[in-house]
Structure formats: structure tokens, C-alpha cells
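Please produce the structure of this protein holding shikimate-3-phosphate.
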Amino acid sequence: HHLINQYINLVLIGMPLSGKTTYGQLIAKALNKKWIDTDIKIEEYSQLKIPQIFKLSGEEKFREIESQVIDLIHQNQGIIISTGGGVILNHTNIEKLKENGLIIYINNQTTNLNNIDFSHRPLINNLDDIKKMKEKRDPIYKEVADIEMIIDESNPFSVERFRDSVY
Ligand code: S3P
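Below is the modeled complex.
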């Protein structure tokens, strides 16, 4: 296992709708750490909502801003970072996040994805898109992660279990 100390960031990666934001907040609260969400930072930094960035400037520009934001965020120490699902598409992002961070793949296999609002998700319009995206990205998430947290109905997320697997 990695040497975990108070300066190490915990970085949550995984698919959209896997719970990175929710779990990031929970973990930060439980460990009394600061929490940062890269998508929120991107919106603050660009003064635009994510769908607007995609619409006005395209995905490539979004990825550029995302990388700039990672460049700033990864310099923090001892915080919890929830990332956007596509952060793994740029290897430099991962290298930076790994410098002082433990990368945790939130692999959420629960299937109760009902009533999803896709309007603010520029890359996915339906459940089939999510399925295809997961098939493509799952190997990448697995490859870059230090720890994979599998969550399903029989194995729900708990901060205690999370703690055990990290420390
Ligand atoms: C993206 C996921 C989104 C957001 C953007 C692109 C992706 O974040 O960064 O729409 O490529 O998977 P969430 O994973 O928080 O939905």
C-alpha cells in the first residue's frame, strides 16, 4: 500500500453519476479535510456553466480548461478531490494528480439510474451512452487507479469501508 500521510490528496475518479461528488463530500466531512470538485472549479474559473463551455467552445477547449484547473488544484495537500469523469483522458492530468495523491476509482455498479437529468451533461444523452462510455473508460480508470472501490447493492458505500481500504 501507498504511504498515506496527512499531506496526501485523495482523488476520486470514475464515471459520471458514480457518486464522486457525493462520496467526496462525505469523505471530506468524515476525515475533516477540505473538498474540491474540479467541475465546480472549472465553472468558477471560466465563469461559464459546463454545457455552455461545450456549446460555445467545444470539448477540446473544455479539456484545456480542465487541465489548467488540475494544474492548480493538484498543488494542494491533504484534500479530497472529486474529478470530472473525463479527467483520465489526459495523461498529464493523472501524472500531476499522482504526484501527491492517491487515485481512487469509484466503480459504481448499481443500476438504479432513474430520472436522470441529462440536460447539463454534454457527452451523454441516455443510459446507453453511459454504458458505452463505461465500456470504453473502465480499463483506463482501472489502470490509473491505486485503489478500486466497487460499489453495488450488496456492497454499498460506507465511509468506514472506504477508510479501511485506504489506510
Ligand atoms: C465529463 C464528465 C462531467 C464533466 C463534463 C465531462 C466526462 O463530470 O466534467 O461534462 O467526460 O465524463 P462528472 O463526471 O462529474 O459528471
